[in-house]
Design brief:
- Strands 1-2 form a two-stranded parallel sheet.
- It is 75% helix and 2% strand.
- The protein is mainly α.
- The N terminus is likely disordered.
- The chain contains 12 helices and 2 strands.
């Protein structure tokens, strides 16, 4: 690039440089558009309670749920009746006058947030991306897709695996046969949402490690060195985010451990790409 071209590039950059208030204004419009998307999907979810509530929210509370049916089929194939879940000994109750309406609103908002998450993150990424260097923008292509994919994959895993098995365990756990499980609707929905959203967030670990590796804050050697410490932290996080039972903690902990190992490989790939880029710049 000639000296004149460099001067023109610098002049253009100065002309397009945004002030702090300009950045706030841009961020405000990104957040407004993201909020509109969440509201639209929330209204859509609220308009179909027979699907949102009966099929999705209350699905894991019935023995005809997809996961339970597949476990019964697997049990029949393996001649193991213990895998079949044919009883969930609890009754859902609404103990407050406004409970059903409140839970309908809350559930619709959470589902609206999940459906709008890819667009929400895309708006945030549009605000962040111009502040990155060209090589950082190039290496982070597909960030919106992978972040959205991992989050939704984690939510699906939480909904189909962690939540139903945890609900089955907690519903069948008894300290005395005389105690009947009359579960409040808000407690059931809170447990379900906590499990699903927690899994969605935890599945972002590979992307978090990717960006930390790009920033030079994490290396594969460092992650291998502190693997034992990471296992302890993962178990603690799984215990905090999951209901107070060993099964839920295990169902959350095992995927996190696998994701940690995958993240080590991702950090190694990032480092190898950075070394290749630096070598190319040094020889050019």
């Amino acid at each position: 690039m000639s000296l004149r071209s460099e001067e023109v590039a610098v002049q253009d950059a100065e002309e397009h440089e945004m002030t702090f208030l300009d950045h706030l204004e841009a961020l405000r419009w990104h957040l407004i558009r993201a909020a509109i998307a969440v509201v639209v999907f929330t209204i859509l979810a609220f308009s179909y309670p027979e699907i949102v509530f009966h099929e999705i929210i209350l699905g894991p509370s019935r023995t005809d749920f997809f996961t339970y049916r597949k476990l019964c089929e697997l049990g029949a194939h393996l001649n193991s009746s213990g895998l079949c879940i044919n009883k969930l000994p609890f009754v859902l109750q609404s103990r407050e006058l406004s409970s059903q309406f409140t839970m309908h609103m809350t559930s619709s908002f959470v589902i609206g947030l999940l459906l709008a998450f890819p667009y929400l993150f895309w708006e945030i990424w549009r605000f962040i991306r111009p502040g990155l260097y060209p090589h950082e923008q190039k290496s982070s292509r597909g960030a919106v897709f992978f972040v959205s994919f991992l989050f939704l994959l984690g939510c699906v895993f939480g909904y189909l695996i962690v939540a139903p098995l945890s609900i089955n365990f907690l519903a069948n756990y008894q300290v005395d046969p005389s105690i009947r499980n009359d579960i409040d609707l808000s407690a059931y929905i809170s447990t379900l949402m906590t499990l699903v959203l927690s899994c969605g967030i935890m599945f972002e670990l590979p992307m978090i490690v990717f960006f930390l590796s790009r920033a030079g804050l994490v290396s594969p050697e460092l992650m291998k060195l502190y693997r034992k410490h990471a296992i302890v932290v993962i178990l603690i996080v799984a215990a905090i985010l999951s209901p107070p039972d060993v099964l839920s903690m295990t169902l959350m902990g095992i995927p996190l451990l696998l994701l940690y190992e995958v993240s080590i490989h991702i950090s190694w790939l990032v480092r190898r790409r950075d070394v290749a880029r630096l070598n190319k710049q040094a020889t050019s």
